[in-house]
Amino acid sequence: MQMSGIKALVEIVIQLGMIWLTFTAIQGFRLERFFRQPPKTLPLAIVLLSTAIGYLCANFFIGFINAVSQLPGLLR
Predict the structure, then answer these.
(1) Which pLDDT band, with edges at 50, 70 and 90, does 76 fall under?
(2) Phi and psi torsions of 29, nearest 5°
(3) pTM
(4) How many Cβ atoms sit within 10 Å of the Cβ of residue 35?
(5) How far is Cα 15 from Cα 19, in angstroms, rounded to an integer?
(6) Where are the transmembrane segments (predicted)?
(7) For 14-57, how does the pLDDT look when each residue is reduced to its tens digit (9 = 90+)?
(8) Contact at 8 Å (CB) between 52 and 21?
(9) Distance CA 24, CA 40 (A)
(10) Which of 18, 40, 46, 64 is 20 to 30 A from 27 in CA distance terms?
(11) In the 3-class helix/strand/coil scheme, how is the chain assigned residue by residue?
(12) Given a cut of 70, is residue 1 above it in pLDDT?
């Protein structure tokens, strides 16, 4: 029971970290310079896009970590 709580905490940290990482990466593109008048909802679009991409990347890394942790069972 204790191990599943730690695993859940690690997954939450990975997901929030990846969302933050993608948010800072998308902000680095400075998307507002591509518009003559940037839409007022551009910050919201950046947050939603970074959440979606960060969630997908985090799920990839969590799945990869889970697959690697299952590899010792192959050698038994």
Answers:
(1) confident
(2) -75, -20
(3) 0.85
(4) 9
(5) 6
(6) 12-29, 41-65
(7) 999 999 999 999 999 998 899 999 999 999 999 999 999 999 99
(8) no
(9) 19
(10) 64
(11) CHHHHHHHHHHHHHHHHHHHHHHHHHHHCCHHHHCCCCCCCHHHHHHHHHHHHHHHHHHHHHHHHHHHHHHHHHHC
(12) no
Closest CA to 60 of 25, 11, 27, 24: 11
AA identity, residue 57: C
C-alpha to C-alpha distance for 8 and 36, rounded to whole angstroms: 44
Structure tokens at 10: 């690690």
CB 29 within 8 A of CB 61: no
15, 55 in Cβ contact below 8 A?
A: yes
Tokens of 21: 């990482």
